[in-house]
Amino acid sequence: MTTPTYTSAYERRLQMVQDVLTDQAEIDGKAARDLATRVLRALDHIPERVR
How far apart, in whole angstroms, are the C-alpha atoms of residue 39 and residue 17? Predict the structure, then answer.
């Protein structure tokens, strides 16, 4: 029996953005992860009423 691992909502969002960057922009793993982090940080700072 395997133990399920907890993945936070932020980590799931980060992985989704990283996957898109890797697939669509052909960016390697480390650079895609760094850029995904910056993208999410920018999106999180946009006020909810503007989004």
Answer: 8
The alpha-carbon radius of gyration of the chain (Å, integer) is 13
Residue 38 carries which DSSP code? H
Q: What is the pTM of this model?
A: 0.77
Residues 6+ apart with CB under 8 A from 36: 14, 17, 18, 21
* Residue 14 buriedness (CB in 10 A; 0-12 / 13-18 / 19+): middle
What pLDDT, in 10s, does the model give residues 4-35?
889 999 999 999 999 999 999 888 889 999 99
